[in-house]
Amino acid sequence: MAYDGIQFGARVDGTTERKLHAKVVDNVLNAPSYFSRLMGMGKPFIGKTYDVTVDITQDTQGEWFTGLETLNSAAANTTITLSYAHTAFSQPKVSIMLESFANTGSTGTIPLDAFKYEKAAAEALNAVGQTVYGTGAGDEPNGLGNIVLDSGTIGGQSRTTYTQLNATVTASGGTLTLAKMATLDDTISSASMSNEEPNMGLTTKTGFSLYEQLLSPSVRSEFRSVGYDAVPIRGDSIVKRVDLKGAAGFTALSYRGFPIMRDDYATSGVLFFLNERYYAWHGRSIVPDEYREMLSKVNLGTTKAYEGTGAEAMKAPSEYNGWFYQKPQMLPNQAGTIARFYVIGQICATGFRRLGKLTGITGV
């Protein structure tokens, strides 16, 4: 193997061991930041489907009266049901027996099978993390692409029939301005009710930088004094970076008191304003009796053989993350084993009028 620096001869090569870094360093994967956050705040998925009854029509039977006139007494049906079934993703982990033999013992600086386990988990997280912006097409879970939308269907119901299921979608006309952000926020907020206002903004790195340009003087002043703000992986309160104290979190800029964060996989040209009280990742958490000898629940966290972006993104443990691991099984006709990660769950939305997005952003 070629190396940078002085090239050694046989006297050194034949007498000296190399120093091998004790972890494999990821130089491939991106950061599915927002799915890490959703998964970290996961809720349980129980039953065949997760169904939500939503109120879509005002009852107009109420009336003013003066005496003994006949009063309205018609029964009104004002609700419909949204229904969500889980989805499933699988990521294999293959081990070759003779490679494991070669890696065994004191010379196995990086535990090969541990690396393959952690690499497979990181690959699965990246693959699932990209779908958080998708449209729920094919076998994929719902994503912001169809949750924050004003057409099509959601939860098995037509948005053409029930326009109350529409989110706010506004074309930016190419530019991002504070006025357009204010209009979107006003549209999807309920006046003076903090729980009915956005608690999270989400965009690409480009969109984040464009917003930063709008705030440039104040951002420079804030950075000089205390550094960038941050949002923890759970919770929506903006904190100073120093206050994370080693906990997982994301760099954020604030707008009207809520954080705006960036994601490598966010939809190009889009700024989302989101109220996370109205949707969540629901993950399976119970292994069926039939599979308890073969499957185990996975709680993501620290890694011992893998570091870098892919490893950092996995630091989002949650009881309801929906992750399971199929224990290694010997391949019947080959000298190796096969194991699998499974991610089983769904992003389920319960309300849409508090969700919105600006589209087509290319500059300021």
Poorly predicted sequence stretches spanning 5 or more consecutive residues:
none
The multimeric state of the shown protein is single chain
Structural class: alpha+beta
| Topology pattern, helix = H, strand = E | HEHEEEEHHHEEEHEHHEEEEEEEEHEEE
From the spread of the alpha carbons, the general shape counts as globular
Biggest β-sheet: strands ordered side by side in the sheet? 8-20-14-9-13-12-10-11
Mean pLDDT: 88
Euclidean distance between termini CA atoms: 49 Å
Largest sheet, in brief, is: 8 strands, mixed
Rg is 25 Å
How many structural domains are formed by the residues? 1
Residues in β-strands, percent: 25-35%
Bin the helical content.
10-25%
Describe this structure in words.
The longest helix has 19 residues, at 112-130. A hairpin with a 2-residue loop joins strand 6 and strand 7. The chain has one domain. The chain contains nine helices and 20 strands. The radius of gyration is 25 Å and the shape is globular. The strands form five sheets. The chain has an eight-stranded mixed β-sheet. It has helices at 10-13, 33-40, 97-103, 112-130, 144-147, 178-188, 205-214, 216-226, 309-312, and strands at 24-25, 43-44, 49-55, 79-85, 87-96, 153-154, 157-158, 168-171, 200-203, 229-232, 239-240, 249-255, 258-262, 271-274, 279-283, 295-297, 306-307, 323-330, 336-349, 356-359.
Entry summary:
The chain contains nine helices and 20 strands. It is an alpha+beta fold and 364 residues long. The protein has one domain.
Key traits:
single chain; 364 residues; alpha+beta; 9 helices; 20 strands; 27% strand
